[in-house]
Amino acid sequence: MNTININGTDFDVKDEELELTLLDYLRERRFLTGTKNGCEKGLCGSCTVAIDDKALRACKTPVKKAVGTKVVTIEGMEGKGGTLHPLQKAFMDAGAIQCGFCTPGMVMSSYALLVRDPAPSRDAIRKALRGNLCRCTGYQQIVDAVELAAKVIREQAVSARPGCEE
Description:
By secondary structure, the protein is of the alpha+beta class. It contains six helices and five strands; from the N terminus they run ββαββαβαααα.
């Protein structure tokens, strides 16, 4: 059976869907339209999703390569009770959202970075985001947002440890 876990739910993939791009599968078959179709060449980063916690371009990833993996899209970032993920909130708080078209890809690239490195340097953040293009910002607010989110996530991890008081 061809199964992909998307945002915590397993989906059976039909044989005829295996040749689709993951971008088309997510948008057209699963109606997860937060993953944006920017350039269809893997250059702009708008279609970035996390596959097994690695940032990958959905427009360049065939569905067959995603079978057996865990895929997280921007829709899967939602917290308990519909709350924003710290990355999403930080993007808003830091003014890192302009038109919003590139934002899902930026958030997913940032998510993959923070999974690997919970305290990245500004240079590491810039490096992780270098494949994501934005025409509306100067990137400074985006780097600030990732830095802010990393701090919040680390603080949440500390406060969630047994014996820690809030």
